[in-house]
Specification:
Blueprint: H1 5-10, H2 14-27, E1 33-34, H3 46-54, H4 69-83, E2 93-96, H5 98-110, E3 118-123, H6 128-135, E4 139-144, H7 158-163, E5 164-170, H8 182-194, E6 198-202, H9 222-225, E7 232-237, E8 250-254, H10 256-269, H11 275-285, H12 289-311, E9 315-317, E10 324-328, H13 332-341, E11 344-345, E12 347-348, E13 359-363, H14 368-382
Parallel strand pairs: 1-11, 3-4, 3-5, 5-6, 6-7
Antiparallel strand pairs: 2-8, 7-8, 9-10, 10-13, 12-13
Helix pairs in contact: 3-11, 4-11, 5-6, 5-10, 12-14
């Protein structure tokens, strides 16, 4: 069977490889504490589950492409509370089926492959930036990060800016957990405007951070773009904020013309999430208390694991926000294999692209008790 050659060029989704090995270990009856994928174990808050149940209609019909106005209003209200930015729910918000779908599909609305349009993105980073771009026919320009793992405008070569149609950034960063300042974001925005490129900011972890390090929380590109959010799109998700990974619910917020294009694309490719999922999302975006509680749990997991690695002499890079710890090791593949033999599943840094070699990523998804057990295992194994 003939397939799109991009499949062969990209290969399997990287994290699927380590997930398969972890599954084999479970099937063999061996213990596993899995830090490989960002799927938290804490229960979804009861009020969100209740909202889902009460939103199931007696007659099932297609959702609209644009999503419920009540959901778009709830997202706009969240953006105002969280970032002090006003957006129009009618023209500047589109709900999505989680962030992965949104990130993958975005280039299809904006890339002219015949014109040689390019997508600039940071690496190591979320693999879907490249994958969506490649399937859409874009040229791809990865910018390798190091040091504090923050993408800044001056890191992008002039010839890349000339070719760029879309520019991805991510804060808090996956996998490193680094956080861009408003100055960093403003620099990217100014260069993107000059280049007539759309600045896309993956902000799915904006509500997962250490309060003592970031008292006001990570910033958003919406805060640097000004009224109307011209030239920027912010990608938001309820997966980690609200424990809704399986619900598949997020949103894109920003530039009116870009949102209109994405709505038009959605009309071709599908619809918004089922309306009962949208009902649960309305409840989730409308409440901040549960996000604060979940943030405290993630911070406790981070404290337990960071203490173990620090005590063993390993360097933790950034990792004060987002859902991950980014640990420097000598050989990320060998280190991952050694931990797997002890029942601890992590992701080697190279799975996230060039620049990830020599690091491992731990997703803060096991329970606090499991993190404590893992820390004890690490001390016994590595001391």
């Amino acid at each position: 069977m003939r397939l799109n050659p991009v499949f062969a060029e990209l290969g399997d989704y990287p994290i699927a490889q380590i997930q398969m090995r972890a599954r084999d270990r479970r099937d063999a009856g061996l213990p596993v504490i899995d830090f490989s994928i960002g799927d938290p174990r804490e229960p979804t808050p009861t009020f969100i589950v209740d909202a889902l149940r009460t939103s199931v209609p007696p007659i099932s019909q297609y959702p609209t492409a644009a999503g419920l106005l009540e959901l778009r209003e709830a997202v706009a209200s969240y953006v105002l509370r969280r970032f002090n930015v006003e957006v129009d729910p009618a023209t500047q918000v589109i709900p999505t089926s989680g962030a992965k779908e949104a990130i993958f599909n975005t280039p299809f609305a904006f890339i002219d492959r015949d014109a040689g349009d390019a997508v600039v993105y940071p690496t190591p980073g979320y693999p879907v930036y490249e994958r969506g771009s490649r399937f859409a026919g874009a040229a791809v320009i990865p910018i390798e990060l190091s040091g504090d793992f923050i993408l800044r405008a001056e890191m992008v070569p002039d010839d890349a800016w000339e070719q760029a149609r879309l520019v991805w950034t991510c804060s808090p960063h996956n996998p490193a957990g680094s956080v861009a300042t408003l100055e960093d974001l403003a620099g990217l925005y100014v260069r993107s405007v000059d280049a007539d490129a759309l600045l896309l900011s993956d902000e799915c972890y904006s509500d997962v951070y250490e309060d003592d390090v970031y008292p006001e929380g990570p910033m958003s590109v919406l805060q640097v773009a000004g009224e109307g959010s011209s030239g920027v799109l912010s990608y938001l998700s309820l997966s980690k904020r609200s424990g809704m990974t399986g619900y598949r619910s997020g949103a894109i917020v920003g530039d009116r013309d870009a949102i209109a294009a994405l709505k038009a694309l959605r009309s071709t490719t599908g619809t918004a999430s089922p309306e009962f999922v949208q009902g649960a999302a309305i409840a989730a975006w409308g409440d901040d208390g549960h996000a604060v509680e979940r943030r405290a749990i993630f911070s406790e997991k981070r404290r337990i694991l960071r203490a173990a690695f620090d005590g063993l002499g390993y360097t933790t890079v950034a990792s004060h926000a987002g859902l991950y710890l980014w640990i420097e090791v000598e050989d990320d593949i060998a280190f991952t294999d050694g931990l797997l033999e002890a029942g601890i599943v992590v992701s080697p840094g190279r799975f996230f692209g060039p620049g990830g070699e020599g690091f491992i990523r731990l997703a803060l998804v096991p329970t606090v008790a499991e993190c404590t057990d893992a820390a004890d295992t690490l001390r016994a194994l590595l001391s």
